[in-house]
Amino acid sequence: MLRLLLLQASVNRRTSSACLYPHLAKLSSPALLLTRCLSSSSPQIPNGSYVEHLDNKDNHLDNNDNQTTPQATATISIDRSGLCNPPEHSHGPTSDSELVKHLKGIIKFRGGPISVAEYMKEVLTNPKAGFYINRDVFGAEGDFITSPEVSQMFGEMIGVWAMCLWEQMGQPNRVNLVELGPGRGTLMMDLLRGASKFRHFTESLHVHMVECSPTLQKIQHQNLKCVDDHMANNVGQRTVSTLAGTPVSWHAALEQVPSGLPTIIIAHEFYDALPVHQFQRTSRGWCEKMIDLAEDLTFRFVLSPQPTPAILSLLKRCKWAVTEEIAKLDQIEVCPKAMDLTQSIAKRISYDGGGALIIDYGLNGVVSDSLQAIRKHKFVNILDDPGSADLSAYVDFDSIRHSAQEASGEVSVHGPMTQSQFLGSLGINFRVEALLQNSTEEQAESLRTGYWRLVGEGEAPFWEGPEEEVPIGMGTRYMAMAIVNKKQGVPVPFQ
């Protein structure tokens, strides 16, 4: 996942809030009403900054063919603030970890390399040693920070969006609210706390957390302040979040969430962790980039000598793109899992009603080479000590759109729009003003910093602290896209 690097800023001045609101957005009336009615409880005080993809030339394969195919000209903007370069390497005399032994065993057993996608899947979600499985990887003590950890306002604005969609759905009495990859549960915690005054909405919800990590499930249970509630007629018990009196269930996959009810799905920084296949253009056509063992038993990149099954996904992606877009690239990433997940979401929404909100960093077009690794808030080599660093790649929003439209004619796709546009249209400007009126000096500085990181672009103009700690806005680097049942019309704020 593209993450926020924590910069431990110590701020000693209170800045006028006037500089924060140069572009107040016009709200649709439901969003404006809900935003202004949110609780003005004391704000949280997280600190974080944003980073993007760091090109790692060590991870690029040499292309020695003599073809005249144009080389890649598309570039991805990056922000290297707060990072230590070059990437760290830990190959040495230390013994291999269990995951490294497992990966080497797979390669040796097959007698050949594995795909980048398989490597990525094992590194992140191996049941015994995957990066996400047995640890809390979020926050200052973890490896990265996400938007919900930056400010409570992010989860509150997602709550506004969900309530607006619920109103467009006709305010059904029973709704599944699903979050994919909920991390610590911070987004859902702020959503439920902010929506707790709207009892008709919260009483309709059954929250479903799609999380494969037992460790994170426990943290989510704690942050949502869950308790066991004995059901009527002694038919059993259920888990309830005391934040809004809402039942909560956990699942390892979206397919396990019961169907048959209108469904609202939130996928924030989930798609970027789905395994990607990488391809490189050569004299013999597109060859898949694979991972093999070198003579010294370290991992290395190689090219597949024969076409691989993933070539079918590449052909589908190229079919959706214009010829000129493909011609300028010599590397392409495709994510079949993202295509499959999107089709599952689209089909469920077409049958049950509702919608999905996808927020992530990425491009509205073909992605070239974006896979990155982050460990302890630093970019590292992708092949270095697998399982100790997060792996993530840019999300191909155009591919999501085509996948949804191909899956069902009963859904419509809206966006992507920038995160700044999305949050601004939902009323984050009004929310930060309300919180500033009831905040301490320290909270006020944190609110301004968090606000800029969520909706700003580039360096914060109000910052007077150390230059290396200046907050970097992520407002234009993250994008939001919605998939909804056509019967509900165009969702807020995509009108």
Automatic annotation (TrEMBL):
**What enzyme category does the UniProt record give?**
transferase
- Kindly state which keywords UniProt assigns to this record, in alphabetical order: Methyltransferase, Mitochondrion, Transferase, Transit peptide
Please state the protein's primary subcellular location: mitochondrion
Q: Quick one: a GO biological-process term for this protein?
A: mitochondrial respiratory chain complex I assembly
Specify residue ranges for compositional bias: Basic and acidic residues: 52-63
- Would you tell me the Gene Ontology cellular component terms? mitochondrion
Question: Looking at the record, which segments are called Disordered?
Answer: 42-69
A Pfam family: Methyltransf_28
The protein's Enzyme Commission number? 2.1.1.320
InterPro entries in alphabetical order: NDUFAF7, NDUFAF7_sf, SAM-dependent_MTases_sf
Subcellular location, record wording: Mitochondrion
Q: Which reaction does it catalyse?
A: L-arginyl-[protein] + 2 S-adenosyl-L-methionine = N(omega),N(omega)'-dimethyl-L-arginyl-[protein] + 2 S-adenosyl-L-homocysteine + 2 H(+)
Presence of keyword Transit peptide = yes
Stretch forming the signal peptide: none
One MF term in GO for this entry? Answer: protein-arginine omega-N symmetric methyltransferase activity
Entry's family note: Belongs to the NDUFAF7 family.
Question: Any idea what job this protein has?
Answer: Arginine methyltransferase involved in the assembly or stability of mitochondrial NADH:ubiquinone oxidoreductase complex (complex I). Acts by mediating symmetric dimethylation of 'Arg-118' of NDUFS2 after it assembles into the complex I, stabilizing the early intermediate complex.
Its protein name is Protein arginine methyltransferase NDUFAF7
